[in-house]
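In response to a reviewer's request, we include the raw inputs and outputs for one of the modeled complexes. The two entities were modeled together in a single run.
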Amino acid sequence: MGRLSDAQRLELYRFMRLNRVVEERLVNLYRQGKIVGGLYRSLGQEATSVGTAFALSPGDFLSPLIRNLGSVLVRGYAPRELFAQYLARATSPSGGKDGNLHFASVERGVIGPISMLGELIPVMAGVALAAKLRRESFVCMTYIGDGATSTGPFHEGMNFAAVRKLPLVVVGENNHWAYSTPFSQQMACASLADRAKAYGMAAATVDGNDVETVWEAASEAVARARRGEGPFFLEAVTYRMKGHAEHDAQHYVDKAELAAWGDRDPLERWSRALAARGLASAGDLARLDGDIARLVDQELEIAERAPFPPPEAALEGVYGEAPGESEPFFLRYAEGKR
Amino acid sequence: MLDRRRADEARGGTTYVEALHDALWEEMETDDRVFVLGEDVGVYGGAFKVTDGMIERFGPDRVIDTPISEDAIVGAAIGAAIAGLRPVAEMQFADFISCAFDQITNFAAKSRYRTGVGIPIVVRGPSGGGVHGGPFHSQNPEAYFAHTPGLKVVQPATAYDAKGLLKSAIRDEDPVIFFEHKFLYRRIREELPREEYTVPIGKARVARDGRDLSIVTYGAMVWEALDAAALLESEGIDCEVVDLRTLLPLDDETIFASVGRTGKALIVHEDTKTGGVGAEVSARITEHCFDSLDGPVLRVAAPDTPVPYAPPMEAFFLPNAEKIARAARALAGY
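The model returned the following structure tokens for the whole complex.
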């Protein structure tokens, strides 16, 4: 495993800032009533998304969860595409058929999630199985929250991947909360990584708010998988700084605990590290932040200009051919249609 | 619907979601075998607040916050029911009932038939669209379960029925799948009786009397059908509206009596058309009321696609009063 170049270190900063700024704009849109449906923040978890996705190579596959906006930015999705998703526009990757991070592109190596948590693990194990069967060297990475490791599909997928020694990296994002349910009510394990023992899967726990540490551990897991040494479960310990979604005021969260995690903000920490290494001064980063803000504003403008999809598009894409709505003969007759 | 809401709000009364909350609360007060389990039902009070305040009143042993495990939630409910309790399992969204499909259809539904052990559980949750929930938070999964012998399937349209049917479901000796239409949660309200009452499972109601044709429907579509009927009244078409309330078992008696009076049947549901509950109702009408029919049995339902996300597409997808009125006009003129 190599080390990060100085340029890559700055790139990590850029992706994390981009992740945060895009979400800040999404919050504004939400408050304006422009977002269709809910909005789920990843504030405080950017280092986990960005650091893990950054460890992949072109040709690898990644499937994000709802809070892994940073991961799909790293995989090459433009902010305008993500805005269009949340705004339900015709230009969105899903064409308005679904929202948030529910989209996919095999070409870009991104497999979208469904809302049934845990189901991604068996699916991505299947993609990894194809790598083995086709004698190809691509690696699959997916995410699971502390809460979703309680699901049956998680256990089934983990076991399958371990037995078949598949090139799958499962990132266990331990952000302490599943909606309003704390880690302690989700499992009796001391750590999320303990889950992996039951499947005979290699595992490690890292500080999920330190982007370089996350990247190093993820790179090692990806390298192992690529060498044919089987799946890896990487626990990233982080914290969900906002409620489950924008409507949730998180009254159930201890304020002192929240403040303590706020002091470990991944962007602040990385800014200090860059300054300490002499890679970027506060002024340099402020200029970079300004560039990112301007870019995101331009991207948002592009997304907002796009129309909603035509209503009839709702009928398209269910099968290879669009299903027609069949009207009984007499109804067509009554309305003078032939 | 909006005019009705404004009028009801002026009058005060109980919303659909409050009615469900009250039914659950009252049953927990009077029968200590009843308990609730599900995701975020306790401290948070439920994603839609159906169980609001219950953990404070009944404690964490009777209002159980579970891991995200629909299969385990329903499985644990079945085990507790075998051991003499009356569990009410919440699905945070009805879409996620798919994750518990095995427990419901293979264990709960077949237990009495195979072993003589009844499974008195309620599996309840919010179904339906109109809130831009997209493909995974808007579905109407009732047809999967209406096809499973051994289950009962209920979907109330009014606050009165929501309360009365949930109480009946909790008291029932068999597994009841209870779908609440999330669009109705806070959009309808009515004055409910102060005294205790229940609404029987398996009994439909005539929501509006009419002479010319019968609109047979359930859930949120009852309100759209009533709006369509009001619209058609001014055109001289007199519609009867039948609210099924229970989808398994179907109340054949009420359906056939209505079609017998009007001679024409239009079936409406929000669920997609092919294989929906409406197909079963239609088949029964043609089987049993053929001599009374003066026209084809018609259906208005959502097209056979997943529920789309973008508002214009969702509006296009969902049946509404206008679409119902159009079909009713054609049927009336047949």
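As requested, we also summarize the result in words. The interface with chain B takes residues 36-37, 88-90, 94, 96-99, 102, 114-118, 147-148, 150-152, 178-181, 185-187, 252, 308-315, 318, 323, 325, 328, 330-331, 334-335 of chain A (CB under 8 Å). Chain A is about 40% helix and 10% strand.
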